[in-house]
Design a protein that fits this description.
The protein is mostly beta strands. It has strands spanning about 5-10, 15-20, 25-30, 35-40, 45-50. The model has no long low-confidence stretch (mean pLDDT about 85).
């Protein structure tokens, strides 16, 4: 089973999502929409970070996932 890791930094207002191994990060690319893509050596996206993310809820962030077959 694949694993998704989600980190919310309340002080830094960032939401970081990893769907690959963070230790494989080789390069980061900013998209211009306050989103940074983390990629491995092959250029495959293994995670992303949303800058200036804030939650109106003090304790919980609701997340929904959708999978697609390739």
């Amino acid at each position: 089973m694949e694993e998704v890791r989600i980190y919310y930094d309340r002080e830094g207002n960032t939401l970081t999502v990893w769907f690959g191994d963070p230790s494989e990060e080789a390069v980061c690319e900013e998209t211009g929409d306050e989103v940074i893509l983390m990629k491995n050596k092959e250029g495959k996206v293994i995670g992303f970070e949303k800058l200036n993310f804030s939650s109106s809820s003090a304790d919980r962030i609701r997340l929904a996932f959708e999978t697609a077959s390739l």
